[in-house]
Amino acid sequence: MKLFFKRRHCLLTFAVNGKITSGESKVMTATDLCKMGSLEEERLVQMVHDFIEPESSPPISSKCRRRHQAKYFALQEILGKMTKAEAKVVESVLKHMRSKKAPGKTSNFKKWLVMSLKIDGFNASICQTSWVRSLGCPAGDYEYIEIITFEEENGKTKRLIVDIEFRSQFELARPTPFYKELTETLPSIFVGSEEKLNETISLLCSASKQSLREVGLYVPPWRTTTYMKSKWLKVAANNNNNNNNNNNNNNNNCVGNSQENTEANSGSHGFSMWSPPMVKPKRRVSSGLSSQFSNMSINCC
After folding, report:
1. Which of 219, 231, 278, 283 has its CA 20 to 30 A from that of 97?
2. Minimum mean pLDDT among 151-155, 193-197, 228-232: which range?
3. Which value, in Å, is the radius of gyration of the alpha carbons in the chain?
4. HSE of 277 in the Cβ direction (CA atoms, 13 Å)?
């Protein structure tokens, strides 16, 4: 672009009396020169535009459009279901996030949010997941918030996942219009159960794979369904295996519930179960004569 403007400046500088002679002994007026410059400028602008803007995607068939609409409505149905416990958590999270004008670092903000949720009466903690490299799935780690709620209907506890960076995990650099519309409908803060999250991840990973292939890109390992599910659902799978194998050595830690777990193990009133002290058995004391007889061996000929 600099060379083009320099060339144009030189041509305008050497113009004399509104005329300039080219190498072919052709006389060109200043008007013709400006027209030539404007045409070259338009071509240059078009070249830059073609370089920046991606090629237009092929027209979508009616079958493909129906498939896109089915995924869109399926996602809306999954995200539209919300229990009373989830609604309470969403209300509390939004309240605290509005009060925090400058979140700062994400990790520090999550710790602050966990403390605020605990003040509201929620059993919240920060969960850190990590997994090793496997076939088709690179190693990675992730961090989110976990809340254990109590269901009054069946009297069971339920694990809710709270992620304040949920939407950004599914963004693509060159998405198709449909996938962009699909991700824009995602909530920036996800609050839901493992089942709800599992269905959402499966649908979005399928849509992202289709979007990447439509623009001519391959699906990277960190966009596969296995990798994406490892971010949130790895802790649940490992906890189930640990309960079956009685093995507590895993790479998933939920920080913030140590006090609650200690109280739960100690009893409902915070007192530990009493057990009598261990009594060591007294050593038998024998006289010198009996000890000598005990050390003797009897040989029968």
Report:
1. 231
2. 151-155
3. 36
4. 3
